[in-house]
Specification:
repeat; TPR_REGION domain-containing protein; about 75% helix; mainly alpha; TPR repeat; Serine Threonine Protein Phosphatase 5, Tetratricopeptide repeat; about 0% strand; 6 helices; ARM_TT21_4th; about 120 residues
Length: about 120
């Protein structure tokens, strides 16, 4: 059985549960993560962006930024992080991720790796 079958089935279960409890951010996060596990990155990005529009802002915005960073879409990642900084009243986590993001991008441009 393929490794993506379990996350694909999980997506169905999570989406069904989310219909019963549409404000459950933990379920929404699990759906996005399951898309990533299935290597359905575009679906994950679209899902996170839709979740942002429906009010699941802080967590979904961070998950979207993480995914964009992992995919090398640094410009969109930075834009997402800037929106998070503007919207979050306590942006400590966002600032930390932004610092890591900017360090990683700078190292990639310079061809260096920090271990």
């Amino acid at each position: 059985m393929s490794s993506w079958v379990q996350p694909a089935r999980a997506i169905e279960v999570y989406e069904s549960a989310l219909k019963s409890n549409p404000k459950d951010d933990a379920l929404a996060e699990k759906i996005g993560q399951a898309y990533v596990q299935c290597h359905l990155y575009t679906k994950a990005i679209n899902y996170y962006e839709a979740a942002l529009k429906s009010g699941r802002k802080p967590l979904m915005r961070m998950r979207l930024a993480e995914l964009l960073f992992e995919l090398g879409n640094y410009e969109k990642c930075e834009k997402t992080l800037r929106h998070a900084l503007d919207a979050d009243s306590n942006p400590v986590g966002v600032l930390l991720f932004y610092f890591i993001f900017s360090s990683g991008v700078r190292n990639e441009k310079e061809g260096t790796v920090n271990l």
